Amino acid sequence: MKTKLLCGKKISALTLGTVQLGLAYGVNNERGMPTYEESASILNTATDEGICSFDTARAYGESEAVLGRYFKENAVPRTVITKAAIYDAAPEKFEDELFSSVRTSLKCLGAEKVDAVMFHNEKMFDKYGDVAARALQKLRAEGLCDCIGTSFSDKTRLYEYSTDYSLDCVQIPANMFDAVGINDGIVHKLAEQGTFVFVRSLYLQGLFFKNTDTLTGKLLAAKESLDSLSSLAREAGLGMAEMAVAYIRDSAGVGSLVLGCDTPDQLRESCRVVNSPSLSASLRGEIERIAERVPSIVVRPWDWYK
Q1: C-alpha span between 303 and 288 (Å, rounded)
Q2: Which of the pair, 2 or 24, is modelled with greater confidence?
Q3: Which of 1, 37, 140, 304 is 20 to 30 Å from 264 at the Cα level?
Q4: What is the pTM of this model?
Q5: How far apart are CA 96 and CA 99, in angstroms?
Q6: What is the pLDDT of residues 30-49, one digit of tens each?
Q7: Do the Cβ atoms of 148 and 263 come closer than 8 Å?
Q8: Residues paired with residue 170 on neighbouring β-strands, in sequence order
């Protein structure tokens, strides 16, 4: 699998998202959280497929511990990105709480240093500003990590925070219905400036694969757009996953796609899809025309069940 570099560390074209290894996650998840043996099988498959980068977080339940156990038992190439979330600390306590969170992550991972630490979302910068930035920089200066960054939910301040705080890496949600940050050129500009961009939520938490006749509540707003997208994929002779991945993968500035899985077979399929052909310009245009009509609630999964 192709790789790029983040602070000298290899990042595979597909970064394995490991929330599924620590929690029952996803709109289509009917299996629950996997056993360690099931997780190890997924991680063995990742290694076999050439995946060398792994995305985890303190908030992902047992994910860090699962990775730590697996890496202790298996000496495989890996670059690990973890995330911390500090929401309620007094400003003067923020640094201490961040360091405590990262040290807990390191203990779970069985490591003295992690390759990258990100904030779980931009809200840490919204609330704490320079205090949060200095704490991240101190983590790196004291050798607890090599790279720093943040994940974003709201991409409004993506460029501002990335440049103002000299972030090594960022992670954003983007997909066929929500390409803000990509189609407006921000991701390309950040990459040219040296910021590595991870992209997650390519399948919008599995929504692209939902049977639209089963949609309820706020997700009913997605039915017309999903049906149009499905028809487009059929006409192009593509699977939905192939279309979704190629649309984001080939966008300027995208460094790595963060994809999770529930089974080894799903991961093998994801690896196949990541190597699928590029979309034609006309097909990309059709996708974008459908996206223009998507109600805003559809691209806000955190609001789906409120």
Answers
A1: 23
A2: 2
A3: 304
A4: 0.94
A5: 5
A6: 566 789 999 999 999 999 99
A7: no
A8: 150, 197
